[in-house]
Amino acid sequence: MTVLQKKAANPIAHLSPEDIEEIGRRLDEIRDEVIATRGERDAAYIRKVISVQRKLEMGSRAVLLLSLFPPAWLIGTAGLSVAKILENMEIGHNILHGQWDWMRDPKIHSTTYEWDHASPAEQWKHAHNNLHHTFTNVVGKDNDLGYGIMRVDEDQRWYPLYLAQPFWNFVNAMFFEYGIAAYDLELGKNLATKERRQDPDFKARTKQVLKKIRGQMTKDYVVHPLLSGPSVLHTLAANAVANVIRNVWSHSVIMCGHFPEGVETFEKKSIDGETRGEWYLRQMLGSANINGSRAMHIMTGNLSYQIEHHLFPDLPSNRYQEIAPKVRAIFDEYNLRYTTGPLPKQVASAWAKVFRLSLPNDFGSKLRSLGRSAGPRYGALPAR
Fold first, then answer.
1. What's the confidence (pLDDT) of residue 196?
2. What three-state secondary structure class fits 153?
3. Distance of CA 346 to the CA centre of its chain
4. Contacts of 255 (CB under 8 A, 6+ apart)
5. Rounded to two decimals, what is the model's pTM?
6. CA atoms within 13 A on the CB side of 144
7. Backbone dihedral region for residue 218 (phi beyond 0: left; psi -120 to 50: alpha; all else: beta)
8. 22-39: per-residue pLDDT in tens?
9. Is the separation of the CB atoms in 293 and 321 below 8 Å?
10. Do 283 and 12 contact (CB within 8 A), yes or no?
C-alpha cells in the first residue's frame, strides 16, 4: 500500500473524468432508490435489533447475579459480550451516523442517543463522521488511518519507534474504546504544547470524556458487581472480559475495513477540488469488505459492507447487503478492485501489514513479496 498517486501502476489510470462522474451518477441513483423506499420494514428491523440487544443484556446481567457458579459466569459473560458488540456496532455506531433519523424517534436519533462507550457521542460524531468519512484514507488528514500511532504507508518516513507498532496495535485492540476517546480528543496534538493544553475547548472536552469514562466504569465495575452480592468479584471480572471482547472485535472489524492489502491511500493534494464522483471513487478504493453469514454481518454493524458504508454512511445498515451486488457491478464494469475476503483472511492481511510497515521499506517489500507468492489475493483486478 502506498499513496495512489505514486504507484507505478495506477489502478484508476484507465478512467476518464467522464467515467468518474458517471460512476458518481450511478451511485447517486442507488442512494436515491434506497431513500425513496425506506419504510416500515427498515424501522421494524432496527426496533427488533434493539429489542433483542436489550433483552440479551438484561438477561445476561441477571445470570451474572449467580456468577459465583462457573456455568452462570460463562453464559452471562458470553451474552453480555454479544450485547455490548450489538450496542456499539449495529445500534450505536449506525444511529450516530443518522441512519435512523428519518424515523423521528428521539430514542434512536443521532442528536440524542448516547452509547455504551468511553467516547461521548458528540465528540465521536465530529471525529468520525465529519473528519474520517470526509477525508477517508488521505494520509495526514484521516486520523483513523493508524490512529496517529502507526505507520500506515510506505511513503511515510520510517523511524525505529515504528518497530513497536504491532505491540501498540495489540494494546489499542484490548482497550479500543479508550483509544477512540483519546483519538477523538486528538490527545497527542493537544498535549504537545502548553498553549494547546491550556485551550479552554480542549479542557472542556477532556472533562466531558473523563465524566463519560467515570460513568461507564461505575456502571460496569461498581454498580452491577455490587448487585451480585457474593458474586461481586466474578461479575466484575465478567464485565471486564465482556468489554475486552467487545473492544477486540470492534478493532478487528475496523482494521478489516480500512487496512488489508488492496486498500488504497491518497495524498493530501489529491483531494483539492475533488468532485462528487472523485469522492465516491476514493471511498470505493479506500475501503474493504468482509465475506460471511448474515449473523456475522449484524455483529459487525454491517461494517462488513465497509465499501457500501463509506459510499452511503447515512443509509440504513440493513440495506447494505441489498445494494452490494449493484455496487460491485459498477466496480466490475469499470475494472476496479473490489477488495473483500473472509474475516480470518482480512484480519490476517491487516495484521501482516501492521508488521510489514513497522519495518523499513526494503524489509517490508520482502515480506510483501513472500505474501504474494503464497497465492492470489481476494479482489484482484479482473483481466481485461
1. 87
2. coil
3. 14
4. 347, 350, 351
5. 0.89
6. 25
7. alpha
8. 999 999 999 999 999 999
9. no
10. no
